Amino acid sequence: MKPLPKTVWALGFVSLCMDFSSELVHSLLPVFMTSVLGASMVTIGLIEGVAEATASIAKVFSGLASDYFGRRKPLVVIGYALAALTKPVFPLAASVTWVAVARFVDRLGKGIRGAPRDALVADITPAHLRGAAYGLRQALDSVGAFIGPLLAVVLMAALANNMTAVLWAAVVPAVLAVVLLLVAVREPEGTHRPAGERVRVTMAEVRRLPLAYWLIVLLAAVFTLARFSEAFLIVRAQNVGLSLGYIPSVLIVMNVVYAGAAYPAGLAADRFSPRRLLTAGLVVLIAADLLLAVARTPTVVFAGTACWGLHMALTQGLMSKLVADAAPPRLRGTAFGVLNIVIGGALLFASAIAGAIWSTAGPSMTFLTGGLFAAVAVAGLLVYRPAQ
Question: Do 62 and 79 touch, CB atoms closer than 8 A?
Fold first, then answer.
């Protein structure tokens, strides 16, 4: 097999650095909001849902812009820079409002960079290697996502559980991500379009995206309803008695599994039936929800979290590959943007509902509801037949 383009590796290491930073923050933020700032679970659910929905809405406009101008990198740089700028806000936060605004801007940055970055991976990678390319980028992303919480555990122990001090450690890798992006990522030659040749994307063109693409979007929405914010995994661990200093280990477990399985899953996506891989991912998610629903000890929460990470590895890169293969090249950024606004709406709904169910019926019912949505998605696969 031919080696993957250097830009794919560079984007992977950029993702590694930023997720190192973001997941260090995210591994502590739910507990920081509840124990330090006094936020309720409903508030956390709304903040997470609005933040992720913001990211998805932004992806539509950034995807459209990247198709219009034929340039991906400038938007990717803006997105990562916005995320880096928010990192000092979290340790400085004096109220939940500060956190909500910082999460909003952070996820806005994620939204601006997301669709152009995913489209850029497709632009520079041969079709027969796209599963591997998306798998590699997400594997490196997940390496950063477990290094961040791991450092959080170490620093919490070293700094006597001073969460404010630990949150400052997220600033350095975020800045490094932006520097690496500026220096190492290159767009394909000749992608910039003169004013007279720019792609004007209309709603009529978007509606003419192929049926296979819209089925992928629908399926992804149902997946998201079953997989609400990972903040609930963290609070679940605290709920069953995991001590405060070890709370970040929940995301370490999830991302170790995700990082280890994402690249092999990407290789499998280039060789095997997408339908089988998606079904396998959903079955693993159902197992995760059931384990988290019945958990009475941190060990069972860790087992459920590991299944959650395996589900992500089996499905996320594959979804990106299916979108890249189904969308015309001239609308690739738009296709990723539309996908993500649908996912964002589903995530807003799922996180808000999960917070409400948690507050009224408890954590077990929250995860059982997620498992029910995953079962619905499995049923959907009996009808949906991705291209083989």
Answer: yes
* SS3 state at 328: coil
Taking each helix axis from N to C end, the angle separating 6-31 and 249-269, rounded to the nearest 10 degrees, works out to 150
pLDDT score for 203: 63
Q: What are phi and psi of 362, to 5 degrees?
A: 100, 170
- At 32-71, the pLDDT tens digits run 777 777 777 677 777 776 776 677 677 777 877 888 777 8
Rounded to 5°, the CA angle 239-51-151 comes to 55
Q: What pTM was estimated for this model as a whole?
A: 0.72
Structure tokens at 86: 């928010």
Tokens of 132: 């591997």
Q: How far are the Cα atoms of 82, 141, 220, 240, 250 from residue 127, in angstroms, in the given order?
A: 31, 21, 21, 45, 35
Phi/psi-derived region of residue 200, left when phi > 0, alpha when psi is between -120 and 50, beta in every other case: beta
Q: Identify the structural domains of the chain with CATH numbers, from first to last.
A: 6-186+205-381 (1.20.1250.20)
Beta carbons within 10 angstroms of residue 253's beta carbon: 21
Residue pair 201/60 in contact (Cβ under 8 Å)? The answer is: no
Looking at residue 160, what DSSP letter applies?
A: T
Q: Which residues contact 167 (CB under 8 A, 6 or more apart)?
A: 24, 25, 28, 32, 90, 91
Q: What is the pLDDT of residues 95-143, one digit of tens each?
A: 778 888 888 888 889 888 888 898 898 888 888 888 888 888 888 988 8
d(CA 262, CA 318): 10
Q: Quote the crossing angle between the two packed helices 249-269 and 231-239, to the nearest 10°.
A: 140
